[in-house]
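Summary for the funding panel

The consortium committed to producing paired sequence-structure records for every protein in the target list. Below we show the first two records in order, beginning with the earlier of the two.
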Amino acid sequence: MTQPTAVIFDVGNVLFNWNLRFLYERLIEDDRALDAFLRDVMTMQWHLQHDAGRPFAETSAELIAQHPEQAALIAALGPRFNETIRGEVPGMAALVAELHGADVPLFAITNFSGEFWRPFRAAHAAFFDRFRDVVVSGDEGLMKPDPAIYELALARFGLAAGEAFFVDDNIVNVEAAAAMGIAAHHFSNANLLREVLAAQGLLGDCEVSM
């Protein structure tokens, strides 16, 4: 059996905490109104269009036409998307730095809007400069768990399936990767992931460069 030599991460809720609520709890004071807005207006189903590649200008115009009374709140997502991200998942910055220090090739596959990805990536350049490449669903028109995005990523990263170790918080994405012969881990926390990576031979004694 081929031993994994590289790690492929998901981004949202593996490397960085992400939730639309993080932005809108700043803009809607009443909890019931906030819950209703995220349930009935800015739903995850609507937001997933961006991860599939649709531009925010189109999706927001359509949503504002349906909910004109919420126009300002809907429009806020574009310029303030980075406020939907609230810091690194505990322990993950150190773990990424440790892997990088051990010369383990780091990559990512993320379901993320291409237009939102660029300012987010720029805001965290020091973190993502450790990654050799990132496949962004919105730029490719492909989303996890579609096998095609894994195939594209492996080809771009120059990896055989057995050489990759994939980490995602969505079990469906993990199962899709595993079905392709990729070693895959359903992420819950950094401590458990560290143990699994060590068992895979991907972590050893190394100097951590923060």
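The next record, for a separate protein in the list, is shown here:
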Amino acid sequence: MSDRLSRARTTGILAVLRAPSPELALEASEAIIRGGVTGIEVTFSTPDAPAVIRELIARHGDSAYVGAGTVTTPEQAALAADAGAEFLVSPGTLPDLTRAMLDTGRVVMTGAMTPTEVMGALALGVDVVKIFPASLGGPSYLGALRGPFPDAPLMPTGGVSPDNLAAWFAAGAVAVGAGGDLANGASIAASDWTDIEQRAVRFTTALATVRG
């Protein structure tokens, strides 16, 4: 296990957080962390994402693994890194953007779906290849990618739930990204923090079962 990936592997689950305001993003993050999921990916579709990242790190320090998601420009990569993000995630793999993300020195996770795209991401030197949207192929598709890429760190995102978490890890996931089944948009908009926390507990319980 490389040092750069140890936090991602240990955390296991990254909550993909999209919220309509910084305040709701922080409240949702707190509920997720209370539920036991300590990996928080604050997407740039959340207003003032760098401020949310900075505040979460100020509150939790090393007890949470906080990064930025939906990074689509070099400027966003720089802003997230300046805010203290430990990892940067992009939905795709554009060479210039990926190089800018790598230049920050942070852990870089970029999106791919096909074998050609996976090869492109690995050639650029990313730390993790985010298989997205993973719901299109399911755990069996991730397992199939393991054939030509047995050592590639793959992280499925999209379609991950407590019910199929074990299947994703059995197929070879280094970690998973969990969106709507965890950081549920309707519950965030309604400030239903009990629901968000309970969703996190279900994911945490499922991960504990996977790890025995």
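Regarding this second record: The chain has ten helices and eight strands. The CA atoms of residues 129 and 153 lie 6 Å apart.
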